[in-house]
Amino acid sequence: LENVGETWRWKARFALPRAGAGELRFVPVVRLESREKSPFSAASLAALLSALSAVTKGADELQIDYDAPDRLVEEYAGALKKIRALVPKLGITALPGWSRSPVLRVLEGSVDELLPMLYDFEPDPIVAGASPLPLLVPEKLERSLAEWSQCRIAWRAGLPSFARVTLFDPSGKSRGHIRDWSWDDLCFNRSLATLRPTALGVTVFRAKAVSRVTNTPVNPDQLLVVRWPDRAGLIRVIDRVKKTNARGLVFFRLPDSTAPSGWSLRQLGHLDATPRLVLRQAGTPAQLELANETDADLEPRLSGAKSESGLDRGYA
Prior knowledge:
This protein is of the alpha/beta class. The chain has helices at 42-56, 73-84, 103-107, 138-148, 183-187, 231-241, 265-269, and strands at 2-4, 7-9, 29-31, 33-34, 62-65, 90-94, 113-116, 157-160, 164-168, 174-178, 192-194, 202-207, 211-213, 216-218, 223-227, 249-252, 277-281, 288-292, 300-301, 314-315.
């Protein structure tokens, strides 16, 4: 929902799937976007409640995703109390730093559950002078989880499972994320030189010639940074979540068949699993099949053991 003046307009809507007899539940999630000074004025809030009432009809839960600036937290809390009257249970996404601010006290009584997004703690540094920040740093997350354990509102730890590709200019300044890409674009692109071995899920490339990643042009000397959560790091952080008072965890985002969604749902359910490849005859004697017979993903190999082995790439 986008806030324009004192109205809220749908930018995108999706039909909520019907719940079956199994354990899978579907919860409507609404993203709020506003650049207005007072997005929760009386008239604006009435328009928001009207828009949300169509989504919450028959639902037993609603989640709101909104990056509330500090100046609007009290107004947001008041709006959430009104929204909470529409559904039996209301959850909202939360910023990582809220655990160190008075925001949580303000929100008490306004929501039933918080979903802190425990990634993107700080802006990217200039890459020429520092390494790009990983999506998941176990030491940093363990400190944040300890702070969130003091929260008196029910909460679930929100961890990243997606993969991200960011383009930087030669000076190391970010030019934004590339939205559409595939692992093949990176593994087999001979115009990209690997600058350093992959560490904590971060790989840095430098373009040696004019290239493209899907529909995005990449010019010589521009930097391309690939980030996704390190599997061993995820195992460590999830183990730490189990030792807090969190009700569980939430992955952002739901994995699908595209490369940007990161680890598959099956791998997330079996993080200890690693690939086991079997070569066998398939059909005619001339046909061979290489099969991965485990719950593990055949993950992309973006760098070799040494940074200068720039074309030592492909899949594990």
